[in-house]
Write a structure and sequence with these properties.
By secondary structure, the protein is mainly alpha-helical. It has helices at residues 8-60, 80-85, and strands at 87-88, 96-97, 119-122, 140-143. It contains two helices and four strands.
């Protein structure tokens, strides 16, 4: 009577095939994770830039109090935190206009750093390619990450 089972060679061939499949799938999985993080980064940048633009528009329309020194002389918020904390509406002391629920996290930054410290601020008076902000206001934000995106660009240039 013949016993049923696998020989050692059959097991080794199966393991080789499985390792080849796993080796082919791993880079694909890594690219998928990077693509998801890139989507999160685009979304976070869009959310913050929209909030900055809304703040500036409200400042230009006179909807924000100008005596509380929350905006620079150019009409941009003095910090990202102001967009979360809210700023007083013009003519009221108890009503605050909030532009963000929270400061989004940079998916490519160190997770132990506070979200507000993960972003590089660019002021209205700064040069577009600056690496040091004037810290007077927040005209734009960008990632501090030195990593390269899937399309070959750098995240700090987005």
């Amino acid at each position: 009577m013949r016993q049923r089972g696998l020989t050692l060679i059959e097991l080794l061939v199966s393991l080789v095939i499985l390792s080849l499949l796993a080796g082919a799938a791993l880079p694909f999985a890594e690219k998928t994770i990077q693509r998801e993080r890139e989507f999160e980064l685009r979304s976070a940048l869009r959310e913050m830039r929209t909030a900055i633009d809304r703040f500036h528009k409200d400042w230009k329309l006179g909807k924000l109090s100008r005596v509380d020194n929350v905006a620079s002389e150019d009409g941009f918020p003095r910090s990202l935190a102001l967009l979360v904390e809210g700023v007083p509406r013009a003519g009221t002391t108890d009503r605050r206009e909030k532009y963000l629920r929270r400061i989004p996290r940079d998916p490519f930054a160190d997770g132990t750093i506070a979200a507000s410290e993960q972003w590089q601020w660019i002021g209205y008076q700064d040069a577009p390619d600056t690496t040091q902000s004037n810290v007077r206001d927040v005209y734009d934000v960008r990632s501090k990450s030195e990593r390269q995106a899937l399309d070959g660009s750098h995240y700090r240039d987005w």
